[in-house]
Amino acid sequence: MMIRLMIVEDENASLCRYKKYIEQYDGGFIIESVATNYCEAIEKYNKTNPDVIFSDIVIPGGSGIEFIEHVRNSNYKGLVVIVSGYDNFSYAQKAIKLGCFDYLLKPIFKNDYFFMLDKVKNLIKGSSIVKNKYYSEQLPDYIKKAMKIVERNYDRDIILDDVASLAGVSSAYLSSCFSKHVNMTFIDFVKYYRVSVACLFLENANLT
Questions:
Q1: How far apart are CA 43 and CA 112, in angstroms?
Q2: Contact of 38 with 63, CB cutoff 8 Å
Q3: Is residue 81 helix, strand or coil?
Q4: Containing H/E element for 46?
Q5: pLDDT tens digits, residue range 115-135?
Q6: Is the pLDDT of residue 88 over 80?
Q7: pLDDT digits (tens, 9 = 90+) for 21-65
Q8: What confidence tier does 171 reach under pLDDT thresholds 50, 70, 90?
Q9: Cα(82)–Cα(84) distance, rounded to whole angstroms?
Q10: How many other CB atoms are found less than 10 A from the CB of residue 132?
Q11: What is the mean pLDDT of residues 87-98?
Q12: DSSP, res 103
C-alpha cells in the first residue's frame, strides 16, 4: 500500500529537499501532487485524493491554514502536517483546532522528516488494523474521538483523564463505556494499538 502525499510549498529549495527526503526514505510514499500557491493547492486537491497533506503556512495567494480549513470543510479525513518558518503559538493553536497530525518548524532536517514519515506510516497502517477489528460507525462519537486521540498520540504518554476531557466526557464514563462498546478496556486498547504499530514497523523495516 502506497501512501499518497500532497505537498504545498512555494520555496523551490525546500520543495526539492522534501522530494529528495522522500526518495531517500525506505518506501511507502508517493508524491501524488505538488502545489506552489493557494489557488493551485485548491485545484490540485480537488483533482486528487491524498492520504496526507504536507503544507507550508506561508504560501502565495493565501495561507496553509486557510487551505487546510478549506479541505476540512470539504470533509477531508486524511492526515495533515503543517510546516512553518515561524515559532508562532497562534499558528500552532489553529493547527491543533484543524486536527493537524504534526507541526514542523523550518529548517527541517532529514532525521526530523524521516521521523514524521515513520509516524505517518505507522499511524495509517496501524489505524487500518484498529478500524478493521474494532472501529464501527455505530460507536458513540466520544469513543471515536478517544480512539483518534490514541492513534495520533500513541508515541506519547496517554492519560485517561486527559483523553476523556478532550472527548467531552468524564474519565469514569469513558472507561465504563469503552469496555462495553469495544470489548476491551481503554488501557488495553492503548497497549494493543502500540503493539500493532510496533509489529507493522518491524514488518516493514529492512532488518539485516
A1: 29
A2: yes
A3: strand
A4: helix 38-47
A5: 889 888 877 776 665 666 566
A6: no
A7: 999 998 889 999 999 999 999 999 999 989 999 999 989 999 999
A8: very high
A9: 7
A10: 8
A11: 73
A12: E
Contact between residue 57 and residue 63 where contact means Cβ atoms under 8 Å apart: yes
For residue 157, give the amino acid letter: D
Residue type for position 104: L
- Which residues, in sequence order, are CB contacts of 15 under 8 Å at separation 6+? 7, 9, 34, 36
Q: What does each C-alpha distance from 119 to 82, 113, 145 come to in angstroms?
A: 14, 10, 19
Residue bearing cell 518506501: 27
Do residues 34 and 22 lie in contact, with contact meaning Cβ atoms separated by under 8 Å? Answer: no
Residue 204: in which H helix or E strand, if any?
helix 186-204
Copy the grid coordinates of residue 62.
493565501
Cα–Cα distance for residue pair 157/146, rounded to 1 Å:
14
Q: Which three cell numbers stand for residue 30?
A: 508517493
Q: Which three cell numbers stand for residue 165?
A: 476531557
